[in-house]
Amino acid sequence: MTTLKNILPFLLFSVLLMECSKKKDSTPTPPTNLNVTATVNPDNSGNVSFVVSATNAASYEIDFGDGFAGTISGTSVTHKYYSSGDFNVTVTATSASGKSVSKTISVTVTVVLKLVWSDEFDTPGSPDNTKWGYDIGTGSGGWGNNELEYYTNRTENVSISGGTLKINLLKESYSGSSYTSARMLTKDKYSFKYGKIEVKAKLPAGVGTWPAIWMLGDNINTAGWPGCGEIDIMEHVGKTLNTIYSTLHYPGHSGANGSGSNTTLATATTDFHRYGLEWTPFSLKFSIDDNVFYTFTNLSSYPFNQNFFIILNVAMGGNFGGPVDPAITSATMEVDYVRVYQQ
Fold first, then answer.
1. Does the annotation count 230 as an active-site position?
2. What are the C-alpha distances in Å from 48 to residues 9, 114, 122, 196, 224?
3. Does the active-site annotation cover 235?
4. pTM for this structure?
5. 28-83 pLDDT per residue, tens
6. Which of 94, 109, 124 is the last residue of a domain?
7. Does residue 103 share a domain with residue 119?
8. How many CB atoms lie within 10 A of CB 42?
9. Do the domain assignments include residue 256?
10. Is residue 9 situated within a structural domain?
């Protein structure tokens, strides 16, 4: 006869077995068979398509190896790289229970920039009004740098001849100012975000002269300055002859507190040189004749992730230009071309 005493050990064993089985079944299981494929667009645009798959995966995250990372919506995503190189791409697959597994692949990307906008200044006369406009007026009153010139759009101050643009600073009495010059800009005509800009120019000499090649953010009318951001590709002042300055201004870094660097260029005022900026979401690299001398780390919180327009001008004196040599009656910045390249 079977008694409770005889079956009790069996019942206890069965309960323990069931509990162990439950614990084993409830253990989170990570995804398996994670596979990642990359297809690089052959047009050298920097676009790469990624396809991922895994067994038991509920979601995927991807680190593209260039500073960008995020969640993949579905199982595929296309990403744009802004520079050539070998990138380690890591995909993490996560199961519904929270367990994850990762896989890293290497992707080789070639990026070729193409000329998208330029002015070669080959047609004599006034600059192309479909590309350039002008700031008109006194620098001391309108732009806060205490400059001495009055900006005009007269041919005496800005013209094209012999294959170059000439911005002429003149010592003359004009509308209450002692000097005239020109400040030309592509605002409301052309602007761009990321890529490379190169300007070939020969700079004026003379204490007090202040030529500049620079850019401002498109949103200056609403964000103001320095909220819109300012990118000074090249500045030169006669008081420190042959010193080239590249500077960025943005909130917390206005005026003399800008982030930048400078370098010496012995022939800045006697020869043409190529002043360049390579600009991506991650950095701004300033160069002369393709030699990079300053690199600024770009962040998403900075204003350098929007469209900027181009400015060319020659100022006289002011906060940065400093003292003026009264013997200077004229000074000219010559520009061979302005070129913008993008992917």
1. yes
2. 64, 18, 39, 21, 37
3. yes
4. 0.87
5. 899 999 999 999 999 999 999 999 999 999 999 999 999 899 999 999 999 999 99
6. 109
7. no
8. 8
9. yes
10. no
